[in-house]
Amino acid sequence: MGIAQTLWLLILAGLVLGWLRQKPGLGECVLYVTLLGLSLFLTIFECRGRYLLLYAPYYVIGGVLGWRNLYQRLARGRG
Question: Which of 7, 14, 69, 76 could disulfide-link to 63, CB 3.0 to 4.6 Å?
Answer without folding.
Answer: 14
